[in-house]
Amino acid sequence: MAWCGHVTAFLTIFCFHFSEESSMPSRYIDRWEKVSIRYGYWYELPSYQSTAFKEGYRRINDVCKTALHHGFLFEKDGNTKTMPIYDLNGNLAGIQSSIPGNMKGFNSLNQSIDLPPLEIMPPVLKGTRDHKGMLHYTVTAYFKHPRLICSPIATADASPGKGLYIQTGFDLDVDFLRIPLESKNLSPLWKKGPCLPLMGVHYFMNLDFDLPCEKLYPVFLTYDMEGKLGAFGWVFQGRPHNFYSNDGLGHWFHLTPITYPFIFDTSMLPSCMMNSKFQVFGIHVFLRDHREMVCTKSMDKLLQTLRSSPITPISQIPSQRTIINADDISNSNAVNDYSDNASTCHMTSVRWTHIAGLVYLCLCSLLLKRMP
Ligand SMILES: *[C@@H]1O[C@H](CO)[C@@H](O)[C@H](O)[C@H]1NC(C)=O
Ligand SMILES: *[C@@H]1O[C@H](CO)[C@@H](O)[C@H](O)[C@H]1NC(C)=O
Predict the structure, then answer these.
(1) Higher-pLDDT residue of 113, 241
(2) CA distance linking residue 272 with residue 211, whole number of Å
(3) pTM, whole model, 2 decimals?
(4) Residue 273 has pLDDT above 50, yes or no
(5) Do strands 125-129 and 200-205 pair parallel, antiparallel, or not at all (unpaired)?
(6) Residue span of the structural domain in which 285 resides
(7) Which of 84, 129, 330, 335 has the smallest number of Cβ neighbours within 10 A?
(8) What local confidence, expressed as pLDDT, does residue 39 receive?
């Protein structure tokens, strides 16, 4: 009897511990817990410059402020899809992706155009030429205020703490777009798209039936069911020649009209995107554990989700990679789950821990009752 009392007390404390943690996310304020890329498998970016060096990255610039970005850019194995940026203190502070300038695509009249189109510059910025003379374009996001990447001094208008900022020009002191941490603060230009399991509720800038295809904005955002920012991504028209990197691993997602439901609600899309030769590619960058980005209230689905997605980073255990296949996802019922409204779904893993705690408590009180 006494032992069960102890167990109950322990579980109560355990349960409170969880609720404490969920209601007081103080340790999350300064930085994102982890930044992982959904490449077709999960890949966690090194949180520190020192770790990046150990994992075989090389530093590209030695002066913190460059014309194209602020911070120290790192690259590994010719993978230019997601290059981490570290701040003066060696902390992960941003990410830059580079796309080649030799792709072809379509405008709103289904005419062939050069990519990337002028209409999406910025945030796409003209970058540098590679050794073959081909021009590359970059897009860059920062995880803290851009003015604090190369300077430790916080000012009234540049407060420390985690965030998401998209670079929108060559003068980073002023040329950036601040992304709200809560979806309720998004400007109405961001159109709500589907909620997709393990990705969250997607928002696309200006995306609707009338959008000319050359204006397809390269940044999208995803928020969890409670409206908290969880991830963002790039999406570009076309298909790059360097679809796979030299390491043979990380690749972009690639979508055609048939596989659009991987990220889009097809009823929102302009007709030029339905052109059968139209294609897009991109990448998801998670700022939090993707398992929190659920879309449905159903306990079964939640359990399924939690069980089916180990988060082992590939850099540590390559043999246990989680392979994600866009086709599997678009063929499963999961993709249709967004017909449940995002706003009606409130279940998060945090509440799940509450329920788990309560279940434990219930079981224990049952045990107590049965004791002689
Ligand atoms: C472009 O192609 C799509 C799909 O084939 C079609 O629905 C649309 O009407 C075309 N647009 C124009 C302007 O021709
Ligand atoms: C979704 O929202 C619409 C309008 O807000 C509502 O009519 C509909 O019943 C909701 N659907 C679900 C599944 O909750």
Answers:
(1) 113
(2) 9
(3) 0.72
(4) yes
(5) unpaired
(6) 3-309
(7) 129
(8) 82
C-alpha count within 13 angstroms, C-beta hemisphere, residue 169: 7
d(CA 138, CA 69): 9
Amino acid present at 263: I
Q: Whose CA is nearest to atom 13 of ligand 2?
A: 340
The mean pLDDT of 135-154, rounded to a whole number, is: 92
What's the one-letter identity of residue 184? Answer: K
Are 313 and 243 contacting, i.e. CB atoms less than 8 angstroms apart? no
pLDDT, residue 300, reads: 47
Ligand 1, atom 7, lies closest to the CA of: 271
b/e sequence 15-53, b meaning 16+ C-beta within 10 Å: beebeeeeeeeeeeeebbeebbbbbbbbbbbbbebebbe
Is residue 228 within 8 A of residue 181, CB to CB? The reply is yes
Q: How far is the CA of 196 from the centre of ligand 1 (A)?
A: 28
Which ligand minimizes its atom distance to the CA of 345? 2
How many angstroms separate the alpha carbon of residue 279 from the centre of ligand 1?
14
% the chain with pLDDT above 90: 58
Q: Could you give the CA distance from residue 213 to residue 271 in angstroms, rounded to a whole number? A: 9
Q: Alpha-carbon torsion 220, 151, 34, 245, what sign?
A: positive
Contact 148, 154 (CB under 8 A): yes
Give the span between the Cα atoms of 8 and 367, in whole angstroms: 10
User: What residue has token string 């770790």?
Assistant: 51
The rounded distance, in Å, linking the Cα atoms of 78 and 133 is 16
Q: What is the mean predicted confidence (pLDDT) over 237-254?
A: 80
First vs last C-alpha separation in the chain: 8
Question: How many domains does the chain divide into?
Answer: 1
Residue 337 lies in a domain: no
Contacts of 335 (CB under 8 A, 6+ apart): 194, 196, 261, 262, 329
* Neighbour-count burial of 249, counting CB atoms closer than 10 A to its CB (0-12 exposed, 13-18 middle, 19+ buried): middle
- Cα(115)–Cα(234) distance, integer angstroms: 15
Residue at 327: amino acid letter: D
